[in-house]
Amino acid sequence: MGRSTRRVTIPAAEFKARCLELVNTVREARAEYVITNHGRPVARLVPVDDAPLKVFGRLAGTVTHEGDLVSPVAVPWEALE
């Protein structure tokens, strides 16, 4: 997995004034900035995960076996009555 990041909230006006500095901080210190407008979060500036996306095996262990999915159920459905 990726390294841990620290999260900082910053107003949009301050972000605009310090954008390039903050981008460098995100890259070097793995910081995360939540950009706000009138105190409400509107965007996040986060570091890019350098690890390649694992495609094969990504869903391994996420499927559960629920038994026979083909045979009729023993309980009558209300829709069939």
Give structural notes.
It is a single chain. The chain has about 80 residues and is of the alpha+beta class. The protein has a domain at about 1-50: YefM-like fold (3-Layer(aba) Sandwich), CATH 3.40.1620.10. It has 1 helix and 3 strands. The chain has a 3-stranded mixed sheet, covered by helices on one side. The model has no long low-confidence stretch (mean pLDDT about 85).
Identify the CATH homologous superfamily of the domain at 1-48.
YefM-like domain
Uncertain segments of ≥5 residues (pLDDT<50)? none
Series of H and E elements: EHEE
Instruction: Determine the structural class based on helices, strands and strand pairing.
Output: alpha+beta
Please name the defining characteristics of this protein.
81 residues; alpha+beta; YefM-like fold; elongated
Brief summary of the model shown:
The protein is α+β, with helices and mostly antiparallel strands and 81 residues long.
